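Could you join me in thinking about how sequence relates to backbone shape in a protein? We need material for that, and I hope you will provide a protein of your own picking. Once you have written the record down, we can walk along the chain together:

…
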Amino acid sequence: MKLKNIFFASILASSAVFSTAQAKSSSQERAIEKLVVTFYQQLFGDKNLEAIDKYLAEDYIQHNPTVPDGRAPLKAAVSQWFSGAAKEKVDIVHSAVKGDIVFLHVRNARPDGGINAVVDIFRVHKGKIVEHWDVIQDAPATSANAHPMF
């Protein structure tokens, strides 16, 4: 009977350690997700170029084939994209985080009135965004099914 109690006590202790580690990981993931969402709103919604210096690592890696690596090329690109654009609330439809990777599914209104479906993926390290990928697709006016892109 004593061995059985030791066994169950060991299992309970292991569960507590796992739960604590899982809660810590979940808390860290929420903080990373919040960092990316805040950056996204400040840069793409508020058109605040200072967000680049605040949230991106100096050796930021860019996977979008139209923008070189680093902060300065991104500043130059968004300066052109934002020319004449008003501040707006970004429309993040879904967000998810797994470890140090944050995924955003965004409804993006284009200046021509069309809509893009965007998936932006960010990797965060030591409180800074260090890497970015994106996939951008025009949202069609009609669909062959009843499931919208958002």
